[in-house]
Amino acid sequence: MSWITKTFSSSIGRKIIMSLTGLFLCTFLLVHLLINLQMLRHDNGDSFNFWAEFMGTNPLIRGMEVVLMLGLILHSYQGLALAIKNKKARGAQGYIVNHPEANSKWSSRNMALLGTLLLIFLIVHLMNFWIRSRFDAMGGLAEVRVANLDHPVGDLYSVAAASFKIPWYVALYALAQIALGYHLWHGFTSGFQTLGLNHRKYSPAIRFTGYAFAVIVSLLFAVIPVVMFFGDNYQPRPATGNTVEQSLGADPALR
Ligand code: HEM
Predict the structure, then answer these.
(1) Domain count of the chain?
(2) Rg (Cα) of the chain, in Å, rounded?
(3) Which domain holds residue 227?
């Protein structure tokens, strides 16, 4: 067995992969959030579209995007494989003997469930925004002009603004952020621990940063669609009409 196969199949190897990919996904979440917050500016989506264009065309970012996608696939696969292996190892007795509620937090025992909820949301989310903007699929993006750029850019803002007027999508988006918050509540600190970054002096600070990161990031991600749902200022441009329902194949006439 080569060291690569060993790393990918041993429990400790899987844990290290989970922590590296998980912490990498955390850095991506931060960048994503900063760009999403641009949608709340009252500038008709210009700032958001500017940054969406930058992320879609910068060669370095496009390269990182491939790493990110592979990281997400690896993280999901290894996470589910670990969960199945641990369940089998516990056998029929399960957690009863260990009284898990007394010894561990709910979020740490349900990482696979929370991750699966996140994965379902991510598939809907990627179909609506990422596949449409990167591959010109599902009606593609309308083009608009923004300040400081001499060429038109894809109007991703209108896709978001139209999607965030659909009650079920806003609810799904906000609920997914609760799953994200719980996943990170345990995951952020656990990721550092897995890598052996455990120190009497620094661990409390890492734990505090992890809790703050989990709450602030998931809360802000959830607030954006809710504000745009209720706010009259956040409207898609009339020509666009692209929404998550069209992405998922529903008849636009039903809306
Ligand atoms: C933006 C998305 C995500 C982020 C930022 C994230 C982050 C993390 C982090 C930092 C950890 C801790 C790793 C460790 O303990 O060393 C973790 C663990 C875990 N993640 Fe994720 N994750 C995400 C999505 C997912 C998805 C989609 C799934 C699965 C379907 C998933 C399943 C798991 C599981 C099962 C664990 C626990 C592994 C274990 O210690 O046994 N995650 N995640």
Answers:
(1) 1
(2) 20
(3) 3-254
